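FIELD: query
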Amino acid sequence: MVVALDGTVLTVVQPALQRDLGASFTQVQWTSNGYLIAVASLLVFAGRLGDRYGHRRVFAVGTLGFALASAGIGLASDIGWVIALRVAQGVFGALLQPATLGMLRAAYPPDRIGMPIAVRTSAIGLAAAAGPVLGGALATELGWRSVFFLSVVPALVIGVLALLVRVPAPPREGPAPGLDLTGAGLLAVALACLVHTLVGASESGRPAATALGACGTALAAAVFIRHERRAASPLIPPLLIGSAAVGTALGILVAASAAMFGALFVGTYFLQDVLELDPLHSALRALPLAITMIVSAHERRGEPGSRGTGPPPPRHPPPARATARPRKEPPPAPRPPSAEPPATASRSVRGCPSGA
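FIELD: result
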């Protein structure tokens, strides 16, 4: 929830941050891109860390580090420090997300894990919806730096409690998973090249840089895939890399996320720079989008077949029981030829082809 709150409040204060620090439009984009690249490249690796060293310990490190990075952004005097600390926030945020799920699975049995995960998801959605409004109110009254101090105290308290509270760890099944640090680094390089190419393509007069970035992206992606196929403990299983279903789902997710966050980014600048609204009123204009997301997620959970609180999917009727077959009476013992009636004996002899 702290990560979602801190991530959404940034969108509404980016125009004010740009004016105060004298940053370019591209530099402001990297305050979001650097965070997202760090999270995307380290999310699976962070889950492996939790499986190896304990999710509670990883969660505490991530929470405390996230709080310190947020405080540093609030005190930064240069856009370069803001971008670097946002990347650090992404690293610590990647530690938090799989650690929370790991702790929930350790605390609840499989038949009761649905409700805690639903509460976690609802809290993230609530923070995503309330973040822009809360950040806009703080930025309007106290300035853009105040929004980064918003999560410092709660994150510090949560991190200290995670270190002090002792929860028995579940027994580990099998050996500890391997850590593919090389794969995580290659994935980060590939994503950074891709995002740098896309950001640079929007600027006119840089065809050579765009072509060079596209070549670097393709080379980094090829090296990453080759490494994953040969690694003993790959970051991404090779079966998922070539799966058509996984590729289609990821494509839809990337397209939807790009459309949503791109609309928020451009819409915020339009509302504040063109219509000259303050951060609070611009956040209120964008609030219906967040509410629609929450309502849509709730409706999706209620559909038959989804893992939500809706009616269960129809079940097929159980197969009918097979009726018991009547017991066959054993055939009567053959009678000796002398005991057979004369008429029957004569018919049986005449019925044989050769009279035998």
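FIELD: remark
Confidence is low (pLDDT under 50) at residues 301-316, 320-324, 336-356.
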